[in-house]
Amino acid sequence: MGELKLMKGNEAIAEAIIRAGADGYFGYPITPQSEVLEYLMAAKPWETTGMVVLQAESEVASINMLYGGGGTGKKVVTSSSSPGISLMQEGLSYIAGAEIPILIINVVRGGPGLGDIQPSQSDYFQATKGGGHGDYRLIVLAPSSVQEMADFVPVAYELAFKYRNPAMILSDGAIGQMMEKVEFFEPMPRLSDEEIKARYPWATNGKPMNGERRILTSLDLDPQKLEDHNIHLQEKYRQIEETEVRFETLQCDDAEYVIVAYGTSARVSLKAVKLLREKGVKVGLLRPITLWPFPTKKIQKLVDQGVKGFLSVEMSAGQMVEDVRLAVNGKVKVEHYGRFGGMIHSPEEVVEALEQKIIGG
Amino acid sequence: MSETALKDIIKPENLVYQKTRLMTDKPLSYCPGCGHGTTHRLIMEVIEEMGKEHETIGVAPVGCSVLAYEFMDVDMQEAAHGRAPALATAIKRLWPDHIVFTYQGDGDLAAIGTAETIHACNRGEKFVIIFINNGIYGMTGGQMAPTTLEGMKTSTSPYGRDPNIMGHPLKITELVAQLPGTYYVTRQSVHTPSAVRKAKRAIKKAFENQLNNAPGLSFVEVVSNCNSGWKMTPVDANNWMEENMFPFYPIGDIKVDGQLVK
Fold this sequence. Notes:
With 361 residues, chain A is α/β, with parallel strands linked by helices. Helices cover 42% and strands 19% of the residues of chain A. In chain B, helix 3 links the parallel strand 1 (56-60) and strand 2. Helices cover 39% and strands 18% of the residues of chain B. Chain B has one domain (29-135, 142-260): Thiamin diphosphate (ThDP)-binding fold, Pyr/PP domains (Rossmann fold, 3-Layer(aba) Sandwich). Chain B is α/β, with parallel strands linked by helices. Classes of the chains: A alpha/beta (361), B alpha/beta (262).
């Protein structure tokens, strides 16, 4: 394994982008993730791996650069924070419709509107329910450490290309800004143009010498064909839900109560579980790593196993809690607890919430 | 004329004109008399003549030419409204040896996509923009465009474009010519045989600039009629275009080899 480095989450993700063999980064500065573009510009990967880095005129342009570049079969990526991600929703809808594999990173800050620049998890709905217009899904990975900021880049690319679907790393301002030790994976070489052409026959990078030209579009004026395309997309999404759910559990085997939390909230909840266990409360932590597909079946198993209540802990007014409730389907109690608007709850607050809302409630 | 006589005429040795190979067999969806079909053909002729059909990627817009990818037999991407220059930017930067072009109308390029247009031009992206200006939104049924002339009637300027209320027509081609990133900027038309020949030369020059790795973007505006949107016959529309559009949007080169034409 490689050496340990002390880095910010945003820097780690930028380094991981280069190491994952990305071909192009297109982005626009916004706090709290501007270090990604800054790191890449300072690293000058165009001189080493040949990766293109471009500061776009807007997030609208960035996401459409991903459409263009991703549409040729190249590994492209952008990063932004909440208001910028909102601007990208149009492009994401087109990308999902045209089935272009791309990677998008959201280092979430408080909202709505311009909000603030502090960490938040209030973009969960936008990330996991589609975000733009039409029936579509993003594959959403939620890192809870600087290490995972790095590790999830190649994972997200693998999923994006496996399913020809946009993938998002949904982080937050705390993980983006905090420094932690990180151990990087070995650099992966960029694919050659020939390898891309051989591997991705759908990609529009010049009509094959012995084949039909390719078209990437999300338009079909024939409603029956568009319904057929949507059915295909839904089948793909079902397949992803069946095979790509990722999560981590902690002390759930004997748990009577389970906290469900991801990202920074999962880190806080980890401490809350420790405090509760010290008090003799049998509590566990379920940390979804993929927010979509969501670990619905795992939650159902926990219900079957005898868990008496779930507390969804999020830095939002309560978004993921809806998916926990759908999974639990009314069988046991599900409540939400969380600070929002850029505030982060303390472990003690989580302990109190579980005691009052779930055990005592 | 009898069938026998036709058979005598239709022979390979009598062939003087045929469909460009790089145009698909799909019937064009454009109105008779519209300039889109001719311009499509000119682009495909140029790519065929350059022998670059296997190394070309085109980006289609939203508007009347939203289905341009149905007619052009090269790899194509369909962009969101106004975003084609952003797509083309990444395509060209990631495939610098390929020929990349966007095909956009006036609403797409000069209204909703103004930022993408200006910044792609200003960065000196090395692709070609073909810009069809007919002063109206044809696809959505004849609404006012950024390039609609003062006084011109459309469904959203039914009493004529009043600059006090609706602003002025935008000469975006002159605007992009001022940017250091553009290398070749020209305005053409395709409404007469001689205009078609000149437009072909301009489009060829634009694509050859890319082939020669010229330091900047090549931008070809084609002033076209929209006879159905203008509610005129094709002939009347062409006459109206000459009398009204050309004085405001004069035909000719604006910038050649990076230098403004005096």
